[in-house]
């Protein structure tokens, strides 16, 4: 596609429920990233994929968070048993390769946990 | 751990004025990026600085990089309202991802 596409754009859920956030990167981009943006906290790195592998998942806040990428394309970030502190905007980005550095971001999925 | 600090975090300035946003980082890196984010929108790449002494300019914005001082600046010349946004600097993290500063929220007023 023309840009990085994320869905849903907004998600409201109850505490304890599981949520899945989807990212469709720019076609041909091999590197994919998830970041979390909380008010006043900037962007927090969560996980990086090169192809379908995740060489660095050090930013995932807890074992409730997981992510996968299939076919070197679409990625899903899953949050189990959501907590209120998970409320944030989850941003996905992609780049041609990991070494180029310049990231192209989607518009994000805003998650609200009640 | 790579830390990226921006200042100021909030900036209100009048149209026509000049100002500089600073970005300091804690470990050696030769690559630094500036992004812009409008409210409710995603991040848009502004500048990619790839070496010591690099300077890039686009319209009223100019970015520079001093890798020895671990400092980048984003200079705004004769600000206009359209520049109101949040500006992030980001530093190469281990060669494959970026660590971001907290962002500078810029408001340009008449």
Mean pLDDT of chain B: 93
Biggest protein-protein contact in the assembly:
A-B, 25 and 23 residues
Helix content of chain A: under 10%
Estimated radius of gyration of chain A: 13 Å
- What is the CA-based Rg of chain B, rounded? 13 Å
**CA-based shape of chain B:** globular
Distance N to C terminus of chain A: 33 Å
What do you see in this structure?
- The complex is a heterodimer of chains A (114) and B (110).
- Helices cover 0% and strands 52% of the residues of chain A.
- With 114 residues, chain A is mainly beta.
- In chain A, strands 2, 4, 5, 6, 9, 10 and 11 form a seven-stranded mixed beta sheet that branches. In chain A, strands 1-3-8-7 form a four-stranded antiparallel beta sheet, with no helix packed on it.
- Chain B has 110 residues and is an all-beta fold.
- The model of chain B has no long low-confidence stretch (mean pLDDT 93).
- Chain B is globular.
